[in-house]
TrEMBL record:
CDD domains: MobM_relaxase. GO terms for biological process: DNA recombination. This is Plasmid recombination protein. GO terms for molecular function: DNA binding. Signal peptide: none annotated. Pfam families: Mob_Pre. Belongs to the plasmid mobilization pre family.
Length: 472
């Protein structure tokens, strides 16, 4: 018989407190949880509380007077121990012995983590294996709510198993350690899942054994259905032995019947009695086999009925386990979301912000380089416009001087034509200058507002279009 003690620890945050309260105190969940036998719920009890309590209210009372700092929203409010033993060991104990076992376990937890911190110690006798849920609020001696001080690190987690095993051995319980220390700590749900898988394996083995018995019963049924062998009764054989033996023979002068010698008669009589005994023994054995076949038929019928019920239970159990697995996956996803502390969220936000700032600075630096190039082009354009204006003014002055002096009509017409062309050119240059200044002012302001997420691939195309406009 396997004899090992079981203790598991699981931490709960604010969002999970109401759920464990409903489970531990059986508040309207008997119809949903297939592991619970509602007819045995009356045998559950709590070592700490006589009546049902509100976990949140009791936690507030404990922390209001004993915790000096403000409690964080992501703080661990309750650390719960699941205490039990191997099913064979638990079922071998009487209810009083089980109660003493749980009392000893509670003494160990209270002594190690503080009696004043214990919130509840609920024993469940309405599930497949009796067990106890012990919840305590992790308040430290320096008045802090800090579960890490009790359970931070693999060493402290392993010590939960070691200390429990050593204490229960000292209290007289010959149990082995629940599992090797190198195995990963498992939650209460994972432990229950393993226990249900063991029970499922046992049920499958029972089904296989009953199927073999049914096959054996079927062979006996086939034997009984075989045509019966005709056997004379003892009375009829005795009558044959009492009657004189006559031997048929061919008719002679002395008649159709003859008498045998006395020695032959006695030999035939002895043979007849021996045959009678053999037939009687065979008859008794046949009757015994007939009775045994009837008994096996009844057993076969009962086994078929049991097998049918077992298969139905197995189907229900497998469907329930599949549902529990899906629920566990859903709770795990929710737990991952809830357990992501505010500090971790702030760290991620800071990291993302630093990365965005880094990219933004790189983008602004690139934009600054582009803006510098645009300014240089702008200055160059301004210088070219100034030189063009100077040249235009110089030509105008030269034309005036030339006109003031004597100029032939042909040359004057030619000069007037050149002046008109220069004026048009000057007007075009001024218009282009105004357009360039407006474009620069407009696009420089727009560049400042461009998000750095639009920078990749956009600057080169924009520069290309600007160069083309400048060339035009």
């Amino acid at each position: 018989m396997a004899k090992y003690g079981i203790i598991r620890m699981q931490k709960f945050h604010k969002d999970a407190i109401t759920g464990i309260q409903k489970h531990n105190q059986r508040e309207g969940e008997n119809s949903k949880n297939k592991d619970i036998d509602s007819t045995r719920t009356m045998f559950n009890y709590d070592f700490v509380n006589e009546d049902k309590i509100k976990y949140h209210e009791e936690i507030k009372k404990m922390t209001a007077t004993r915790v000096k700092r403000k409690i964080r929203n992501d703080a661990v409010l309750v650390a719960e121990f699941f205490v039990s033993a191997s099913p064979e060991y638990m079922h071998a104990m009487s209810p009083d012995e089980q109660r003493k076992y749980f009392e000893a376990a509670l003494d160990h937890i209270s002594g190690k983590y503080g009696q004043q911190n214990i919130l509840y110690a609920t024993v469940h006798n309405d599930e497949s294996t009796p067990h106890m849920h012990v919840g305590f609020v992790p308040i430290t001696e320096d008045r802090r709510l800090a579960a890490k001080d009790y359970f931070h690190g693999k060493t402290k987690i392993r010590r939960i198993q070691d200390d429990f095993h050593n204490y229960m051995n000292k209290r007289g319980y010959d149990i082995e350690r629940g599992e090797p220390s190198e195995l990963q700590h498992k939650s209460v749900h994972e432990f229950k899942k393993q226990e249900r898988e063991k029970e499922l394996k046992q049920l499958e083995q029972q089904v296989a054994h009953k199927e073999k018995e049914i096959q054996r019963m079927d062979s006996f049924v086939e034997l009984k259905k075989a045509p019966p062998v005709e056997i004379r009764s003892e009375k009829r054989i005795e009558e044959l032995c009492i009657q004189p033996i006559e031997i048929e023979a061919a008719k002679t002068v002395r008649g159709s019947k003859v008498k045998v010698e006395e020695t032959d008669f006695h030999e035939l009589l002895s043979f007849s009695k021996e045959l009678q005994q053999t037939l009687a023994a065979e008859h008794e054995r046949t009757n015994a086999l007939s009775r045994e076949i009837d008994r096996y038929q009844k057993e076969n019928k009962a086994l078929k009925h049991d097998l049918k019920e077992t298969k139905q239970e197995l189907q229900v159990y497998v469907a329930h386990q599949d549902g529990e697995v899906e629920k566990a996956k859903k709770r795990m996803r929710e737990k991952l979301v809830h357990d992501f502390s505010a500090e971790q969220k702030e760290n991620v936000k800071d990291e993302v912000k630093r990365e965005l700032d880094k990219q933004y600075e790189a983008h602004i630096s690139s934009l600054s380089d582009d803006l510098t190039i645009e300014k240089q082009k702008h200055e160059k354009t301004k210088k070219e416009l100034v030189q063009a204006n100077k040249m235009n003014d110089s030509l105008t002055k030269m034309n005036i001087d030339y006109i003031e002096n004597y100029v032939p009509k042909e040359e004057l017409d030619k000069a007037n034509k050149e002046v008109d062309e220069l004026r048009k050119e000057n007007k075009t240059l001024k218009a282009w200058k105004e357009k360039a200044l407006n474009w620069i002012d407009k696009h420089v302001e727009k560049i400042k507002q461009v998000s750095f997420f639009q920078h990749v691939g956009g600057i080169q195309k924009r520069n290309k279009r600007q160069d083309q406009e400048i060339e035009r």
